[in-house]
Methyltransferase type 11 domain-containing protein (Chrysemys picta bellii), 271 residues
Amino acid sequence: MAVHLLDTQYDADSYQKYRFPPSENLQSVIFSYLEEKKVDPVRLAVDVGCGSGQSTHVLAAHFEKVVGTDISEAQIEAAKQAASFPNVTYHVCPAEELPFADGSVDLITAFTAAHWFDMPRFMKEVDRVLKPHRCVALSTYTADFSMHYKDCSERLTEIFTETHDQLLKYADEKVNLVIAEYKEVFESMPFPDTKRVTQIFDKIPMSVSGVIGLFQSFSMYQAFLRSDPEAAKSLLQKTEQRFLETMGVCSNETQVEIGIRSACVLGCKGP
Ligand SMILES: C[S@@+](CC[C@H](N)C(=O)[O-])C[C@H]1O[C@@H](n2cnc3c(N)ncnc32)[C@H](O)[C@@H]1O
């Protein structure tokens, strides 16, 4: 069964504000794979589970037409409201029922979304809509985060990890696919030509308030908030205080870097 997320499980506003687009090195893994597989001409890319569109935008420069799809009307509404590109459109639909003709798509992506899908039904759709010799790239960031600021990176990373671990108690079981770095997603790929890359490192600059916003954008934080609003808000307030005290600064607009490690599963359809 697909996990049909209610719009309340993600806060589209937090998404729009605090989620960052696919990192540079992750993009480079995907586009190098497309080059290797000679995906040209590059007509249509479909970004499934596109959320508020940050991931969809990075495809715009590489494809004639890009369609972002998501099951959440609120996410698609937020995507439509955001500044975008003329060749990008959005559509509300489940990943397991893509509104594209057989053999019509050059690339399917899902950034930090595939773990929510009904995997066998989604993979069947991927196989149906892709043209022969065309590709799919399913990526996520792993649970391996770090936080960097001057000489206190180690302590900040510990605080970040403690908060992340507390939130994990509220994670849906589908998040286990992320913890396992998409091993099962890889194993369910229907194509013989596949590849899984798990050591993709990037550093994302953001403010301390941005780090707190990133936590707020996680579905597991939204679950905690629904279960115990006071405790959830207090956890993030305390986390912010601890960050600022450790850094010896007062402003939550102070810039830090968040280190992320992404995993990406790639596949190329046969003839
Ligand atoms: C973690 S967000 C990722 C959004 C975006 N790709 C990004 O990188 O910021 C996961 C998204 O998957 C969507 N989603 C979950 N289950 C889905 C399904 N079965 N079909 C389509 N979208 C789904 C959610 O609504 C949510 O917007």
User: Anything to note?
Assistant: The longest strand covers residues 193-207.
